[in-house]
């Protein structure tokens, strides 16, 4: 699959909901009753590391960033079910790939290894600095503390018992008018208390990743409006999303703009 890059311009707007001393802000979405609401990740989880990159080496689908200043703990950015619930991405903040993000797959004290999406990242000036952030997840965007605020928990697995549902877009296969790749509801009957997939009703799905450049669809099956409050960092620099293209079929790429303001089509590069 080939990829084309869509570069979203640098954000240069002041927000009245932002702390003047930081990039932290909040955004509220109203989830109307008996409706589907499309939601994007308008703010993002906090940076846990930032630094310069001295060199990059590519090997197949992986690239390794050598950090100018180390100091990491080996595997600190590696997901471990049950003990390390975060999965991380490296957002390139300087270089010709600035704005691109890549999932972190491993790290040592002085290196980061990422999934490079089939892109060449080595070479002078391609990646010169990064920041590391955790992906948002179902559990971080819709935590248990927000029950009956941003979502209504389900008290069973029957179709009528399933209340608020979350649908993720399908960007993993080619085609047009694609159905959601997965759907979830919060299971709150005895012995549970976490998000589950409608295709796997027992497994804890709280750590399901939400890509920063995709939207999600929230289905509020209830008779009352819900409110989703996103709190986090406003991305102030360039952001690039990669749209997969096919040589054999038309392909829909479902994109969510990771900004807290509206954009014109002409501003999307």
Describe the 3D structure.
This protein is 1% helix and 38% strand. With 269 residues, it is mainly β. The protein has 2 domains: 11-43 and 137-232, no CATH class; 49-134, no CATH class. The strands form 5 sheets. Strands 4-5-8-7-6-9 form a 6-stranded antiparallel beta barrel. The chain is globular and about 55 Å long.
In short:
This protein has 269 residues and is mainly beta. The chain contains 1 helix and 17 strands.
Write the SSE topology.
Elements: E1 2-8, E2 24-31, E3 35-40, E4 49-59, E5 62-67, E6 88-94, E7 101-107, E8 111-115, E9 129-134, E10 136-137, H1 138-141, E11 165-168, E12 182-187, E13 194-197, E14 209-210, E15 215-220, E16 226-233, E17 239-245
Antiparallel strand pairs: 1-17, 2-16, 3-15, 4-5, 4-9, 5-8, 6-7, 6-9, 7-8, 10-14, 11-12, 11-15, 12-13
């Amino acid at each position: 699959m080939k990829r084309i890059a869509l570069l979203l311009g640098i954000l240069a707007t002041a927000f009245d909901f932002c702390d003047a001393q930081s990039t932290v802000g909040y955004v509220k979405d109203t989830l109307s009753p008996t409706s589907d609401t499309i939601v994007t990740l308008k703010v993002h989880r906090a940076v846990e590391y930032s630094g310069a990159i001295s060199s990059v080496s590519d090997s197949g689908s992986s690239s390794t960033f050598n950090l100018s200043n180390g100091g990491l703990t080996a595997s600190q950015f590696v997901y471990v079910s049950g003990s390390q619930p975060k999965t991380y991405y490296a957002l390139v903040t300087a270089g010709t790939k600035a704005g691109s993000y890549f999932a972190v797959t491993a790290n040592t004290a002085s290196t980061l290894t990422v999934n490079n999406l089939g892109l060449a990242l080595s070479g002078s000036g391609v990646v010169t600095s990064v920041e590391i952030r955790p992906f948002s997840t179902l559990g971080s965007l819709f935590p248990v503390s927000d029950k009956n605020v941003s979502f209504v928990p389900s008290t069973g697995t029957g179709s009528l018992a399933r209340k608020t549902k979350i649908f993720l877009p399908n960007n993993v296969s080619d085609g047009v008018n694609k159905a959601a790749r997965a759907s979830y509801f919060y299971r709150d009957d005895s012995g549970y208390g976490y998000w589950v997939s409608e295709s796997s009703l027992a497994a804890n799905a709280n750590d399901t990743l939400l890509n920063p450049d995709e939207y999600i669809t929230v289905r509020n099956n209830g008779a009352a409006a819900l409110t989703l409050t996103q709190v986090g960092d406003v991305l102030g620099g360039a952001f690039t999303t990669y749209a997969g293209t096919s040589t054999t079929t038309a392909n829909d790429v479902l994109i969510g703009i990771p900004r807290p303001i509206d954009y014109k089509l002409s501003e999307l590069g």
